[in-house]
Amino acid sequence: MSFNTIEANRRAAQFEDREQLWLFGYGSLIYKAGFDYIERRPASIEGWQRRFWQGSHDHRGTPEAPGRVVTLVEAPGATCMGMAYLITPAVFGYLDHREKNGYLRFSTDMTFADGDHADGLVYIATPQNEAWLGDAPADAIADQIARSQGPSGANRDYLLNLADALRGLDADDAHVFDIETCLRQIEG
Ligand code: SIN
Questions:
Q1: What whole-number distance in Å separates Cα of residue 176 and Cα of residue 166?
Q2: How far is the CA of 89 from the centre of ligand 1 (A)?
Q3: Could you tell me the distance, in angstroms and rounded to a whole number, from the CA of residue 116 to the centre of ligand 1?
Q4: pLDDT digits (tens, 9 = 90+) for 70-122
Q5: Residue ranges of the domains in the chain?
Q6: N or C, which end of the chain has less CB nearby within 10 Å?
Q7: What keywords appear on the UniProt entry (predicted)?
Q8: Which one of 69, 133, 145, 176 would you pick to mutate in the ligand 1 pocket, going by the greatest count of ligand atoms within 8 A of its CB?
């Protein structure tokens, strides 16, 4: 997969003059930081829902056999729970590399558990990116996840870690939990 969003994200940097800023994570960024942060707080964003519709050719699959990872799709009225990290701009070098397979940053309002708000940067992969896989039945998504493996490990671990992390946040996410149920059936 030659598509790489590192340059596009670098050109779009929206934080040259900031000492610190918030990142909102909704997928692996909930359960695996892998970078230094100043503060970490559960948060949510409005109007988006999590979907296993993005191909992973570099982390949880390979170019020949991509896995599936989450992105966000617009859903008026929906709330997406995740984890907010207060970070310095230097961390975006690491994040842009990690999210390079189709994810672009955008800024949106986040709500913390105590009702406070802040702007947060979010990595999102849209249908326009070349690694996009799109919708499929939950059992087909689980089947692809069960078979996929990449440099960051088994795709099933991504799904199960995410489902556990969402339970830890008291997040209601039927899409993720349905795929988890299908995976457990496949694995017997
Ligand atoms: C995120 O976690 O916010 C982006 C998707 C991922 O890296 O799993």
A1: 9
A2: 18
A3: 23
A4: 999 999 999 999 999 999 999 999 999 999 999 999 999 999 999 999 999 99
A5: 6-187
A6: C
A7: Lyase
A8: 69
